[in-house]
User: Fold this.
Amino acid sequence: MLEIFLIAIGLSMDAVAVALSIGCYTCSTSRKLHLKVGLTFGFFQAVMPLVGFLLAYSFRSYIESLDHWLALILLSYLGFNMLWAGYKNNIELFDPTTNKALIVNGIATSIDALVIGIMVASLNGPILTYMIIIGLTTFILSYIGIKAGCGVGIRYSKYSLYIGGVILILMGIKIFLEHTVFV
Assistant:
């Protein structure tokens, strides 16, 4: 159980960083928004291991060869949109709290969890246990992340879109490097 929990914390860090950037952007005290972000990220982190588990035998090498590219492209796309909105001084150009943006972020930050599902399948491990612990851990930490981001956003509101955009791009690069250079 400790091993699964540590894996869950590691997997959730990408989602937490994105939640932090969303908190910087919105600085919302809305519990509804915090729940929406936490539930979205927790859901995708919980479901992706199952997807990986189910696809493990058929598409393993294909998934492992593309997951880092997908994360890099999706997170960089969102990050550059935030930077562009900051440059144009127009917050309305990008809203990371829309359902579309949250789903894209949820998928992009949970691709690593898909690979965990492949690993669990190869070990004949308890996939349901992994799903629950990973999903709950990500939900809790993302919820905390968006609240913490608000504190950063208040202090640096002028730069919040830049901070958020850079975080998203760096997360994409981090995932890409972890899967290519530092394998």
The radius of gyration is 16 Å. The mean pLDDT is 82. The chain has six helices and no strands.
